[in-house]
Amino acid sequence: xxxxxxxxxxxxxxxxxxxxxxxxxxxxxxxxxxxxxxxxxxxxxxxxxxxxxxxxxxxxxxxxxxxxxxxxxxxxxxxxxxxxxxxxxxxxxxxxxxxxxxxxxxxxxxxxxxxxxxxxxxxxxxxxxxxxxxxxxxxxxxxxxxxxxxxxxxxxxxxxxxxxxxxxxxxxxxxxxxxxxxxxxxxxxxxxxxxxxxxxxxxxxxxxxxxxxxxx
Length: 216
Hints:
- By secondary structure, the chain is α+β, with helices and mostly antiparallel strands.
- It folds into two domains: about 5-65, no CATH class; about 65-215, no CATH class.
- The protein is about 40% helix and about 15% strand.
- It has a four-stranded antiparallel beta sheet with strand order 1-2-3-4. Strands 6-5-7 form a three-stranded antiparallel beta sheet, with helices on one face.
- The radius of gyration is 20 Å and the shape is globular.
């Protein structure tokens, strides 16, 4: 889309879902995401949920048609190559940053794994001298894609904005994720969190693949 196509109150789509334009600047637009169960959150301004700024690059990736995003993402997620990349990504994220790692051969699609905690089969490990930066690439950890605490706070802003201070306090101490899930359980939002987390991880991983010229 182009900025000139936006109007206040207009609904549009991105890979992350449905949005509504709430303000238009000289070079940017501002919008809220329409993913709340309680539609009263959409009343404003001011809004009780977070507003996000879309710059020129973001605007170009917007569309008035949701089908192109839904079909494209669904097709990629079903592909064997993406499933293998996603499995390797989850392996990388299953331990602390740097403790597990995965290398993808962009030509063949083969994934090589390494772990500080698990003995891997030799065929699954790429020797350091065989690494070729023109062919091989390290898969990211979720923290590299802002899918750690940033994702928690994004979920909190969208689904339980009244608890932002409580969540901030939870993540100021050790054992935060366990206490955060207890909070979600008490609000009957735990399954919604898992769905949100999985969807955002898939979208971020797809975007990472596109940025690194990895096709499916």
